Amino acid sequence: MKKIALSTLLLFFAVSGFAQPRMSVVEAARQADSLLSKMTLDEKISMTRGYSRFFFNGIERLGIPYIYLSDASQGVNMRHNLPDPTMVRQLEKSTAFPCPIMLAATFNPALAYDYARSIGEECRAGGVEVLLGPGLNIYRNSQCGRNFEYFGEDPFLTSHITENYVQGMQSTGTAACLKHFLANNTEFYRRRSNSILDERTMREIYLPGFEAGIAAGVACVMTSYNRINGEWAGQSKEVITDLLRGELGFDGLVMTDWNSVYDMQKLILSGQNVEMPGSWKEDITAQELLSQGKITEADIDAMIRPLIATCIRFGLYDRKGDEKYKPELLAKLPEHEAAAYRTSSEGIVLLRNDGLLPLKPGTKILAAGQFLDEIPRGAGSAAVKGYNNVTLRQALEEQFGDRVTFAEKPTKEQFAAADVVLVSVGTLDAESIERPFALPSSAEKLVQQAVGANPRTVVLVNSGSGIRMTGWADKAAAILYGWYPGQNGFRAIAKVLAGELNPSGKLPITIEKEFADSPAKGTIPPDGQFYNECRNERLIQLYDIPYTEGVLVGYRWYDTKGIEPLFPFGHGLSYTTFELSKPRLSAKAIADGEKVKISVRLSNTGTLPGAEVVQLYVSEKNPAVIRPVKELKGFRKTELAPGASQVVEFEIAYRDLAYWCDLTHTWRVNPGDFEILLGTSSADIRHTLPLIAK
């Protein structure tokens, strides 16, 4: 993998219209060196660590302000527990957006830009210089409590959402931070885990999203809690200097995750720039390392230079006092609410429908379940409370009036007598824990009772990742996946039920029938032992997570192993119907340096307006190494009126056919036969076109 050239980045910015930093990397480094020359040694050492939990340190005598950082990817987490709350003027409210995995379910990168720009504007209003997101760790394990913060299982989809998120966020002047680098795919005692993965797996699955964010000009990267092949990511020279900076070409600011490093000498020499949050009690101090000759002052300079240079380059040091805040941007909160609503309206996934939905006028609904009066959301650093919150009860009453009734614990007779039953179930996922794939027993029992008593049951699932639905999925009349829909997303769900909104979301994940089908099955905790990381964490032995599935993650695993999932990646139904016809390739063969154009006609053959996501996959027919049956290399979301058609076009390059060769340490395409697959999910392929790689 070659280092990304600055000229390539500049071309990318020119094409995308991305707002570039205020100066070049070289000029920012020059100004950083000027500041370094004026610092005392103690001041330099103070800059290696955070301050008051959510700040980069400042030096008032040199005009270096403290820089405020805030979580999270789905909105601004307003911190009211800072050790020194006088350092910032906190926002009074911030928009609770749908969770990032719901954003990915829209398959709409342009919406990711608006989503992140809206959050960035709220950051600027509240004096937040760095937003600690987006999170983009790949969905490998459906039990990971942090999946809701990420963009799903596919590196191509993740990359396109990430680059637009970064551009949208940084267009406001708020610095974005990619996290968590690298292979942080479990929350089960995450500080005790060691992710063991090979070079090919890393480059094909876990690096592309970070590469996309770097190419988009991201300011910051946060390292992960876990070890990678034996060393903690946050203090690993191989991970930070060799891989992130050397191979990926990242020249911005690298920070640790909170309390995630253990060796001060390794930390300083790793390429890391700042240890967060700054409250870590090290066994040996930087001063002691200097006196012992184990590090030099030049090593300290090298550590903090990218921190200072990045803050200069993005203009963060220019904001002092009242200049930090842009309260006028709070006038745009209604626009932010609208962006949140658009995300939920496009991210709702209709998994199953036997024709019951949309509900006929006059239909009476019996609603029951977990989240009638609580807005489900993920917990931890990503939690955002929101304002103008609309519960499911409120949304249903607004939409259906007295045609909806509510029952806390309906009887079998009540279920059976209802025109339609709506059962709300799901999970409340959280940072630092794994949770069972199965629903809580009370929720599972409620769904089983409902579908057993009334075949006209709609199940609404709100969760941050996949759940077990095998016991009732084929008995429910309809299943809606509503994720964590944000502060106003239940309104969109009510409109989907009523038919005023046609669902268009697609699964950014595969939902397996049983967790035992998953490639992560070997890392399942003992039965019932889904512990929080804070409970006796240091008494837990370090444990390995071998990524033995290699590149076969998500649908790549299920397709290649011949394991039928419950619902496949890319799946999502509509109230109208679509047809793909007349696929064409611009050439029958492709050589290195060339591109091939693919086109297919999408037609709305139903009676309602709707949007469909055309998905393009590539497949090598006779691979020399293990390769997935198919890999996503293109997608387009297109909205059409009834009877309308549109030609959907794609372009793939020779590189899109490649795999990473561990022997040559390069991308390689084996000459021979490939196929271009066009469909509306990974399991619904409508057309196959042959292509020869020269």
Automatic annotation (TrEMBL):
Gene Ontology MF annotations: beta-glucosidase activity
DNA-binding among keywords: no
Name of the protein: Glycosyl hydrolase
Species this chain originates from: Alistipes onderdonkii
Any one of the GO BP annotations: carbohydrate metabolic process
Residues covered by the Fibronectin type III-like domain: 612-682
A family per Pfam: Glyco_hydro_3_C
Key words of the record: Hydrolase, Signal
PANTHER family: BETA-GLUCOSIDASE
Signal peptide: 1-19
Entry similarity comment: Belongs to the glycosyl hydrolase 3 family.
Statement: the UniProt record of this protein carries the keyword Nucleotide-binding: no
